[in-house]
Amino acid sequence: MLLASPEQPTLEDFGNDVWWIVLIKVVGVFVILVLLTLFAIVFERKVVARMQQRIGPNRVGPRGYLQSLADGLKLAFKEDIMPALADKPVYFLAPVIATVPAFVAFSVIPMGPAVSIFGEVTPLQLTDAPIGVLVVLASSAMGIYGIVLGGWASGSTYPLLGSMRSAAQMISYEIAMGLSIVAVFLYAGSMSTSEIVAAQADGNEVSLFGLEFTGPSWFAVLLPVSFVIYAIAVVGETNRAPFDLPEAESELVGGFHTEYSSLKFALFFLAEYINMVTVSALAATLFLGGWRAPWPLSIWDGANSGWWPMLWFFGKVVVALFFFIWLRGTLPRLRYDQFMRFGWKVLVPVALVWILVVATMRTVSRETDLSTGEVALFIGVPVALLVLLAMALGGRAANRETRVAAEHAAAGGVHTVSDEPEVLPPAGAQRRPTGGPSRAEGGFPVPPMDLTVPPSPRLRHQPAGEGGAVVATGRRGTTTVEEDKPDV
C-alpha cells in the first residue's frame, strides 16, 4: 500500500470515529450533495444559455442563482397527482428506491486527507472498504430498480416503454464502465478508493533519450483508453444527453417519470443530478488524482494537507460536470439502435482488449528494469492510440450499413449488403393495411395516420361486448375500446 504523506488515510483509520463525528460526516455528505445538485442545475442552465447565446435564469436571486432553489420549493408544494391505474405502494416507493442509492454511493468517495475536527483526527471520507469502488457500482445498479418500478407502477404504456429502455441502457453501459476501471485496479493493486488516490500520489520516473524526468501519475494519463471508455459509459449510464433516450420527448413524452408530479418527480430529478455528481467524483478519484492538487499547485508543500484538498477535489468535480453540460449543448441525440450497438459492439470489446494490454504492461514492468512510467510511455501510449483509433473506426463501421442505406434511399435506389435482404423497401412503397408501419417516398418509416394507441396494459379485459367493443375494467371505472376492423 502506498503512503505519500502522514495525512494519507489508510483502511485502518476507518471505523474508529466517535458517533458524533460519524453524524457530522453523514449530514455533511447529505448537505454537500443537495447543494451540488442546486449548483449543477443553475450551472447547466447558465452554461447552455451562454452556448446558445441566451440570457438564462436571471430573475430569482442575484443574477438568477437561486432559480434551482425556487424550482425545488415549487415542486415540493405542488399538488401530488396519482394516476387512477397506478400501483400505489410501488408508485410511492419507486422514487425513494432511485434516490437513496444515489446518496449511499457517495459514502466511499474520499474528499480530502485526515484533518482535525473539534480535536478529533478523522479522514475527510465517510467510510472505506477493501472493495470500496464496488459499493459505488452496486449502488448505481440498485437505482435501476427505482426507474423500472416507476415506469411499471404508473399504469401507462409510455412510462413502461421508457423504463424498459432505461434499464437496458443503464445495464449495458454499466458493464462498459465496470470494465474500464479494471485497469485502475491492476495499476493501484486495490479496490479501495483511498488507496487508489494514494497510488496516484507520486510521479513516475521516466528515462527518455538519456534524460531523466518525472512523468504524471494520474491514471487518466497512464490509462487513457480506460478514461475515455469511462467518460463515455457514465454519460450513457446516467441517461444524459446525447444518450438521454429513456426521456426522449419526441418518442416517449417524458420517459419513465411521465406520470409523476410534485415531490416524487423532484426525487427522480434529484437522483439524476446526484448520480452525475457521484460519477464525476468517482472519475476524479480513479483517474484525476482524487483530492490531490494538480501541477503546478502540487509544488506548494501545504497543497495536500489540511482543508485545501477539498477545494482541489470539488474543482475537479465541477470540471467533470461541465463536461456533461458541454455534451448536452453540443451533440444531437442518437438513435436507440445506434446507441446500443456502440455500447455492445465497440465499448465492451475495446475494454476487454485494453484489460489484456494493461495486464501485459504490468507483467513487463515487473519482469524487467523498466519503471511503470517507462512501460506506459513506450508500450501503453502506442497501444492506446491504436485502441482509440479502433474505437473510432468501429463506431463508424457499426453504422455504415444504415448510413449507406439512407443515402441510397434518398437517391431513390435500393441498397443490399452482400446476400442480406433489402435494408429498406423501394422508394414509394405504401404502408401495410390497418395499423402497420408505413414507408414514405424516400423509403423511411413513418407512423400510419390511422394509428390507434392501445389501452393500458394494466386494464383487465372482459369479453367483447356488442358491436365488437372490448370492455376493460380498471380500479375506478370501466373503459370501452372499439376494436379495429380490418380494411376490406
UniProtKB/TrEMBL annotation:
GO MF entry, a single one: NADH dehydrogenase (quinone) (non-electrogenic) activity
UniProt keyword annotation of Glycosyltransferase present: no
Domain of life the protein comes from: Bacteria
Bilayer topology: Multi-pass membrane protein
Residue ranges, annotated region (Disordered): 411-488
Protein family membership: Belongs to the complex I subunit 1 family.
Name under which the protein is recorded: NADH-quinone oxidoreductase subunit H
Gene: nuoH
